[in-house]
Amino acid sequence: MADIRAEQEAERKFSFLKGGDVGAGEVAWSDGVDSVRKALADSMNAKNVAFLLGAGCSSSWNGDQEVGIPTMAPLAKEFTKARDHDDDLFPTAIERKDLESLYGIKLGDEEYARNLERLMELLFSMRFILRRSSHGNVEDGRKLVDSVIDKVRAFLWDKCTNGRFAQGDTTVLKLYETFYRKLVLRDRSLPRPWVFTTNYDVFNETAMDRLGLPYANGFSGVVERRFNPATFRYALAEQLDLSSRKWSAVDGFVYLCKLHGSITWTEDDHGLFPIRETTPGKDPGKVMIYPTPAKQNSSLGSPYSDLFREFQSRIVREQSVLFTMGYAFGDEHINNIIYQALTIPTFRLVIFVDPALEGEIAKLRALSDPRIWIIGGDGREGGRKAHYFDTIVEEFMPQRPAERIDDAVRKVLETMAPKKMDQE
User: pTM of the predicted model, to two decimals?
Assistant: First the structure.
């Protein structure tokens, strides 16, 4: 049985591209995963480490059913498809017709049916113009655009709060918990890691809460938690000696930065910091999520300007490593910051993605930069991929001591089992 498994693994390979290193490329699962894991462990012990988690990290399939949150492409397909009967949650037949007749926007066009952000980019731009128009005949147009925008926001909020994960399925949450368990193995003498995410969900916060890990997410307070960027300057330490006032950084402390907002954020008119963090309710209300790459405009205002400033500040430091997971480089404003970081000689970019993708991934491959690592392709087993979040967490991230012992025992059993069978 062990020989058959080893033979099957030897036939499956994944890609480990190190820029211009012609020696890198296809790696067999049977003997390559350990070397990749070691390379990543070394990278995770760099002076400054940051992670960028995209929509792919919160998506997971069990057979043919999504148990997490769908990525942008299936979300766009579901929202933009034409329906036989009107549904208040989606654009009605009249709204679809008016969008096309008034503004030439066809929701069924491939551009919008594949990427909901492209539609939102256009709608936000149109709303900006219509709200500033002095013509008296644009009121209906304003209501139309506002209605579709509100429906997109409500649709996204529903997908981030309802689903199998909200009905007891812990598949995705367990992956996030494992991710953070392995992340905190980092040497406590090094600066604490930063986790940046474009996701609106609360998998990160829930996982750390359940693990008892302390983290800073830019909010302070107890009864009323409000956004205060100064909290990103804080560190959590424990006092080792009361007499000499010696302090040491607390193990497992993480900085979490949600670049595109969250389903737990809302805004009001009270206090110096009007952005509040609450628990997700049953109504999207003033939830602060902006699903559009035209965030070049949205990101200029607080809290987004503060969040992007942190992202830029962290990855342009000396000896920095940025790991991207579940992110296909579809956001121009984020890409620009990453490209700026590539001008720093000591910066390294580790990308978990399908290496055959075109667009920005193809451009990054073409740079042949040895500081850019691209890991992806086929998984160890059929139906899995090397660049999926579950594979990254389970196979590639550094192992905890207990896991290393378990693997050692497994290898001994696999090695000894054939000999035992021969003796019999």
Answer: 0.86
